[in-house]
């Protein structure tokens, strides 16, 4: 058994290295991914070890990067694209939603597009405009795309392995504020299904469902609530498309209350779909309405105000109080 304690960024680097070693058709592409090793150093050392033809520094042109990746995938390659920051993905949005997501259906299943698009996302790093967005719902809404986000180092490693091996395009959101969080990674483990939610803390009074950067916040909320005698279950959703509604339903049938937490704005966010579906599925089990905690329906603010914008411990616990008051 090969178990090592790694940060999320190092786990992603190790996963990319494993994929490059295992399959000569795997390529890494993006702005500054080669010589610099990425702005977050996630791809550090890969171009040195695998060469400029496998780890490719691209022009500053996201639409061109994704378009090139589509062409490479059509020729049998498995490109892994890095979008440098979440807010930079929009020049490539047309390529992703009208080409990458649709090609398989357009070809009646005869064409596969095994493209992974890695996107560091979310706030709390004190960045400037366009560097702290959470656009996952925009991609989850598009049929033909898989959308996932790890919350810990083990998932960062294994979910990326599974994404690269998938014959379908995968949008892989990396919680940049958690890049330096460390946990154990077993690189010889047998991973569970890519799109299955996981209970990371059992509880009996209420379910907190989150993904990516907010899982740690929900675990902190559960610990704080435990000091007041409240037992909160924390569910790491891991996947935003498809969503593992069966696991959420099973948890809510036990706890009878649900609070969904994400950094993205609450308005038309992933939590809205979860709230609607669980209300339909669990109407006779629920003892309170499904509540949502997230960002505001406003442009992401300057860094001095981001602590007010982002959902934190107090806003999660406030929702817990409101749900338990019914």
UniProtKB/TrEMBL annotation:
Keywords: Oxidoreductase, Thiamine pyrophosphate. The keyword Oxidoreductase applies. Its cofactor is thiamine diphosphate. InterPro entries: THDP-binding, Transketo_C/PFOR_II, Transketolase-like_Pyr-bd, Transketolase_C. Residues 6-181 form the Transketolase-like pyrimidine-binding domain. SMART domains: Transket_pyr. Signal peptide: none annotated. It holds the Pfam family Transketolase_C. PANTHER family: PYRUVATE DEHYDROGENASE E1 COMPONENT BETA SUBUNIT (PTHR43257), PYRUVATE DEHYDROGENASE E1 COMPONENT SUBUNIT BETA (PTHR43257:SF2). This is Alpha-ketoacid dehydrogenase subunit beta. It comes from Streptomyces blastmyceticus.
């Amino acid at each position: 058994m090969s178990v090592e304690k790694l940060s999320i960024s190092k786990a992603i680097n190790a996963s990319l290295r494993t994929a490059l070693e295992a399959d000569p058709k795997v390529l890494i592409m993006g702005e500054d991914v080669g010589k610099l090793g990425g702005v977050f150093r996630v791809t550090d050392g890969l171009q040195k070890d695998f060469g400029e033809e496998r780890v490719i520094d691209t022009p500053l042109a996201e639409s061109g990067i994704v378009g090139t990746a589509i062409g490479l995938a059509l020729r049998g390659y498995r490109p892994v694209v890095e979008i440098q920051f979440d807010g930079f993905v929009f020049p490539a949005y047309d390529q992703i939603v009208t080409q990458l997501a649709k090609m398989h259906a357009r070809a009646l299943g005869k064409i596969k597009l095994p493209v992974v698009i890695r996107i560091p996302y979310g706030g709390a790093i004190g960045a400037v405009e366009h560097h702290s967005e959470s656009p996952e719902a925009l991609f989850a809404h598009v049929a033909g795309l898989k959308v996932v986000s790890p919350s810990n180092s083990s998932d960062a490693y294994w979910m990326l392995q599974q994404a690269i091996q998938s014959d379908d395009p995968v949008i892989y959101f990396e919680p940049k504020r958690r890049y330096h969080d460390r946990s154990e990674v077993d690189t010889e483990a047998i991973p569970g299904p890519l799109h299955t939610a996981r209970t990371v803390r059992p509880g009996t009074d209420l379910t907190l469902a989150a993904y990516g950067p907010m899982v740690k916040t929900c675990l902190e909320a559960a610990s704080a609530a435990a000091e007041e005698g409240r037992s909160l279950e924390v569910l790491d959703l891991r996947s935003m498309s498809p969503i593992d509604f069966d696991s959420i339903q099973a948890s809510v049938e036990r706890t009878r209350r649900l609070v969904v937490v994400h950094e993205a704005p609450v308005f038309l966010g992933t939590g809205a779909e979860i709230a609607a579906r669980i209300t339909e599925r669990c109407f006779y089990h629920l003892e309170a309405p499904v509540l949502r905690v997230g960002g505001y329906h406003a442009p992401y603010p300057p860094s001095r105000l981001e602590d007010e914008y982002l959902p934190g411990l107090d806003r999660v616990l406030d929702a817990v109080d409101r749900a338990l008051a019914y």
